[in-house]
Design goal:
Radius of gyration: 19 Å
Number of helices: 13
CATH topology of one domain: Serine Threonine Protein Phosphatase 5, Tetratricopeptide repeat
CATH architecture of one domain: Alpha Horseshoe
Low-confidence stretches: 20-45
Strand content: under 5%
Oligomer: single chain
CATH class of one domain: Mainly Alpha
Length: 249
C-alpha cells in the first residue's frame, strides 16, 4: 500500500530531536502540560556550541522537508559531537525522508547505541524503516520498545497506531491515534491516519472531517496531496453509497 510512504512522511513532524539548549528556547506549539514532542531532550548537554548551531540549522531544513539541504549541517554536527545521539538520529530522519532505508537504519541503530536507553525516539525511527519495508511485526516490536523508554512521546502512540491499522486492529489504532493528538494537537499525519481508519470502517463524514483538519494543520506538500486523493475517494464512496441506498427505495 502506497500509504506507508505518506504515513512515514507525516510522522517526521514528531521525530526531530534537538539538544535542550535550543529546544527550550523555542515556544511550544500548544499550551498543554506536555513538552513539544519533536523537541525531545534526553539530557545530552555535552555537545559543543558549534555542533549545536549546526544541528539547529539541520533541524530547520528538516522541518521544511528539505533533507538534502540538512545533510551537510547534520554531518558537521556529527563530526563535532561524535558521541551524541542527536546527529545520528536526525541523519537517520534525513535518509528516511530521502528514501534511503539502509542508511536510515544504520544511523538510527547508532543513535540507539549512543542514547544508552535514555530515549525511545531512535526506536521510533527504526520502526518507520520497517513500516516502509512492510515488516509490520518487527516494526511494532520496535515501537513498543520505544514507548517503554518514552511513554509520553506522541510519535510512539502514532507509530503503534500505524501498525495496528495495517493489522486491521482499527479500534486500537483509533485509540492510540487520538492519544497522539492529545499529546500534540493539530498533527497532519495523525489526522490523515484517522481519516484512513474512518474510511475503513465506513464512517465517511468522520473521515472527511479528519481530512479537513489535516489540510488545516499545515501539512507537507506530499501529505497534503495524499489527503486530497483520499478526500476525493471518500466523496466518491459516499456518493456511491447514497445512490445505492436510493436505488433500493
Amino acid at each position: 500500500m502506497r500509504a506507508t510512504r505518506y504515513f512515514v512522511l507525516g510522522s517526521l513532524y514528531f521525530l526531530l530531536a534537538v539538544p535542550s539548549s535550543f529546544a527550550q528556547s523555542r515556544p511550544a506549539r500548544n499550551q498543554s502540560n506536555h513538552v513539544d514532542d519533536d523537541l525531545v531532550d534526553v539530557g545530552d548537554l555535552q555537545m559543543p556550541a558549534k555542533a549545536k548551531q549546526a544541528l539547529a540549522k539541520a533541524y530547520a531544513y528538516l522541518r521544511k522537508g528539505d533533507p538534502k539541504a540538512a545533510l551537510p549541517y547534520v554531518e558537521k554536527s556529527m563530526a563535532l559531537a561524535p558521541r551524541s545521539f542527536y546527529p545520528y538520529h536526525n541523519l537517520g530522519l534525513a535518509q528516511l525522508q530521502l528514501g534511503n532505508l539502509e542508511a536510515a537504519e544504520e544511523n538510527f541503530n547508532k543513535a540507539v547505541a549512543l542514547s544508552k536507553g535514555k530515549t525511545g525516539y531512535p526506536y521510533f525511527g527504526l520502526a518507520l524503516v520497517h513500516l516502509q519495508r512492510r515488516e509490520f511485526s518487527e516494526g511494532q516490536s520496535l515501537a513498543e520498545q520505544g514507548i517503554v523508554l518514552s511513554p509520553n512521546a506522541a510519535v510512539g502512540k502514532y507509530c503503534l497506531a500505524l501498525f495496528q491499522y495495517f493489522a486491521g486492529r482499527l479500534a486500537e489504532a483509533e485509540r492510540n491515534a487520538n492519544e497522539a493528538l492529545r499529546l500534540v494537537p493539530n498533527s497532519p499525519g495523525v489526522h490523515l491516519l484517522l481519516a484512513y481508519i474512518h474510511e475503513r470502517i465506513q464512517k465517511s463524514e468522520a473521515a472527511m472531517a479528519e481530512i479537513e483538519l489535516c489540510l488545516k494543520s499545515n501539512p507537507s506538500a506530499t501529505v497534503r496531496a495524499e489527503a486530497l486523493v483520499l478526500l476525493q475517494r471518500v466523496r466518491e464512496e459516499n456518493t456511491g453509497s447514497a445512490v445505492g441506498a436510493n436505488g433500493m427505495d
